Amino acid sequence: MLIQSSNNVKIYNLSAGKSLPEWLSDRKKRALQSKDLDIRRRVELIQDFDMPGVSTSIKVSKDGKYIMATGIYKPRVRCYEVANLSMKFERCMDAEVIKFEMLSEDYSKVVFLQCDRFVEFHAQYGRYYRTRIPKFGRDLKYHFQSCNLYIVGTGPDVYRLNLEEGRFLNSFQTEATTLNVCDMNPFHQLFVCGSKEGKIEAWDPRARNRVGVLDCALHAVTPDTQVIGIPQVTAVKFRDALTMGVGTSTGQILLYDLRSNRPTRVKDHRYGLPIKTVDFHNLNHDLVASMDSRIVRLWDRNTGEPYVSVEATSDLNDLCLVPNSGMMFMANEDKKMLTYYIPNLGPAPRWCSFLDSLTEELEEGETAAVYDDYKFLTVEELHDLGFSHLIGTNLLRAYMHGYFIDMRLYRKAKSIVEPLSLTRYKQNKVKETIDQQRSSRVQLQKLPAVNRELALKLMEDSKAVDDAEAVGKKSAAKLLMKSNILNDSRFKDLFVNPNFQIDKSSEEFRLLNPAVSRLDKIREKRIKKALVEDQFEPVKGTSLENPLMDDEFSDSERKGRKRTISSDDSSSSSDDESLRNEIKLQHKIIREEKFQKRRLEREQEKLEGPKFMALKPGQKFQGFRSTNDQPKKKLARAALGERIHLEEDVNKIKLAPSAGSREMTFTLPQSERVTKAREQAQQHHEERRKIIRSANHLRTRGRGRGGRGRY
Q1: Does the CA dihedral 647-649-655-660 come out positive or negative?
Q2: E-strand spans in 436-518?
Q3: Which residue from 33, 28, 57 is spatially nearest to 44, judged by alpha carbons?
Q4: How would residue 562 be classed by pLDDT, with cut points 50, 70 and 90?
Q5: Could you tell me the pLDDT band of residue 95, with boundaries at 50, 70 and 90?
Q6: What span, in angstroms and rounded, lies between the C-alpha atoms of 296 and 561?
């Protein structure tokens, strides 16, 4: 027996634990019970309460003395008698049972709806009759007053089979394409069926007319629900004459009052799985039980607050609440049919009243927790133990951010891994000791192949970062920024690509180098001064204080002091003058080099003699003079339009260099619209020039200027 707790409610799983085979002797059974804790904790409430493969549906007879369950494989039905806590009989069938209904108070009359469109009737001795329906069925209900069996399936018809006359009656024609479920109200015999379109249609068996339609799909979509697709009706159940519960394929449960077309409560399972069963439990609490393939939830009908939840290890197929008790049975995708007992819901049934005393004794003593025999491990701990390949197997149970593993398996793995961890610890300690010894040695810094002097200078700046506190925060930040250039990937090519090599012979570098060297000297002086001020304190009466305000000095000493101070003030101006002299000297050297270069070129041309030039093929000799060689006076007198035509290129602009020996030339772009307009105007002028006729042939022959003449 497994004890769980959910929302401070104890849940007893009576089907947990190992089952012992019948052929074992009593001695071996006692030996196994003394050794195995699971066998010792198990409670075999009903003998052979299982199926060969999977259990599909389960029900309790109306008199409460028999439990019937169907399953596979092979398709079969088993009947258990609770008075003897054992199986009464077992019958195999030709096809799998989808739903079944008990027609009598006990097991003597049962009808089965099978997956091959057959409806099979069983009596106390066995199969009585077998008939077929036109389409595949999905659910069936029996009306005791009229002896009519209502069957719904993959079609709009509700088939009516009268068991007293033994013939089919006229079917109910619905507006749906497929009917999934149906139910009969035991108080006023209202028949309802749920469709694939998410609607509930209500029929009165007495008048054989439809009396109402509920659109559940529309009301299932609320701000608090998560709906994907069109909700289908997959479960329906009446609580009393007025209250009805509806389950949808998207995981919502809707509670309706038959006097209203709007639901009084909408509850979402939050799993998105179809609701398979909806039932009501109103013994001690007014609760609603809803089940999907993953979990069973019991929640308050009036407030919607969750009361308790039961989660199984395998998918669930059917739910059966034992009347007037706190016990429930579940059919699932496993061999064992599940049995749960919740004392808070009600007492145990009369045929297993010993459960009440058993649970009271367990609650008085300290019971072991659910996972006392398991160890919780995170994913990292699983990798350390080498159990990452077990994820997804039965040896690990996923829980929150880790997994539960059997304590015995964990201890074995821990004993194997512990020597390896000690060896790893020793190796780490040896490595740390070697690294400490290496740090005390002289470390050689490798310089890059390109711009080595710049890299060396940046390395020295990075060493000065440690002493930058004496200089101040601003200078420390500047030094840190410079030292980061070596580690910055954006400046990687500066020390790798030869194209970025600094050319010391260029004019730009030679003119800029004096200023850079002067800044380096000033920075070194400031660092030294800051380090001195950090290590030493000024003494009273020394040069750090103002000597001119001290009365102990004489006039001659004050004059000498003034000269020294004035000399310190003039040191900065002398530095500026020396910088100007160095720059002038560099300019003079560059001019001399250019002069020497031009003189050598002229001498070389004299030695080589005259050069002869040949006219290029396809070119005509037009002389050496061009429009650009016109005199400046003539060009100045010309009109603006003529001067523009005389220019080499109107759209080209040259910018004279402000510093250095570089210049930039670019062409102003013109928009397409301006170019197109200019071409159209030029074309228009050409056309007009062709059309215009000259008037030279018209001449007058008059004798006087204003007289008449002959044409």
Answers
A1: negative
A2: none
A3: 33
A4: very low
A5: very high
A6: 99
Question: Are the beta carbons of 336 and 15 closer than 8 angstroms?
Answer: yes
DSSP code of residue 447: P
Helix (H, G, I), strand (E, B) or coil at 636: helix
Is residue 29 within a helix (H) or strand (E), and if so which, with residue range?
Answer: helix 26-35
Give percent of the chain above pLDDT 70.
71
Closest alpha carbon to 507 in 436, 423, 447, 583? 583
Residue carrying the six token digits 């054992």? 86
Lowest mean pLDDT among 56-65, 136-145, 281-290, 500-509: 500-509
pLDDT tens digits for range 471-482: 454 454 555 555
- Measured CA to CA in angstroms, residue 623 lies from 1, 543, 619, 701 at distances of 118, 82, 12, 50
Tell me what pLDDT residue 376 has. Answer: 84
Return the higher-pLDDT residue of 602 and 179.
179
Q: Is the pLDDT of residue 626 over 60?
A: no
The Cα 96–Cα 92 span in angstroms is 10
704, pLDDT greater than 60: no
Structure-block tokens of residue 583? 């720059």
Nearest Cα residue to 255 out of 276, 241, 234, 237: 237
524, two tokens: 């070194």
Backbone angles phi, psi at 12, to 5 degrees: -110, 115
Which pairs count as long-range contacts for 626-630, CB under 8 Å and 24+ apart, including other chains?
none
208 within 8 A of 148, measured Cβ to Cβ: no
Closest C-alpha among 105, 118, 109, 3 to residue 60: 105
Better-predicted residue by pLDDT, 485 or 341: 341
What is the distance between the alpha carbons of residues 159 and 145, in angstroms, rounded to a whole number?
A: 17
User: Residues 221, 223, 229, 232: is their CA dihedral positive or negative?
Assistant: negative
- For residue 159, with 0-12 CB atoms within 10 Å meaning exposed, 13-18 middle and 19 or more buried, which class applies? buried
Return the beta strands (E) in 23-105 as ranges. Answer: 54-60, 66-72, 76-81, 86-92, 97-102
Instruction: Check residue 410 and give its pLDDT.
Output: 85
**Are 162 and 150 a contacting pair, CB within 8 Å?**
no
Question: CA 232, CA 247: separation in Å to the nearest integer?
Answer: 8
CA angle (512, 515, 518) in 5-degree steps:
145
Q: What is the pLDDT of residues 57-82, one digit of tens each?
A: 999 999 989 999 999 888 999 999 99
β-sheet with 402-406: strand ranges across: 374-378, 402-406, 396-399
In order of 36, 377, 387, 393, 395, the CA distances from 413 in angstroms are 21, 13, 9, 17, 13
Give a three-class secondary structure readout of 416-438: HHHHHHHHHHHHHHHHHHHHHHH
Mean pLDDT of 6-35: 74
DSSP 64: S
CA angle 559, 564, 567 (to 5 degrees): 125
Query: Do 500 and 451 contact (CB within 8 A), yes or no?
Result: yes
CA 373 vs CA 340, 378, 389, 408, 624: distances in Å: 22, 17, 22, 8, 109
* Residues whose CB falls within 8 Å of the CB of residue 272, separated by 6 or more in sequence, listed in order: 226, 228, 250, 251
Q: What is the pLDDT of residue 133?
A: 92
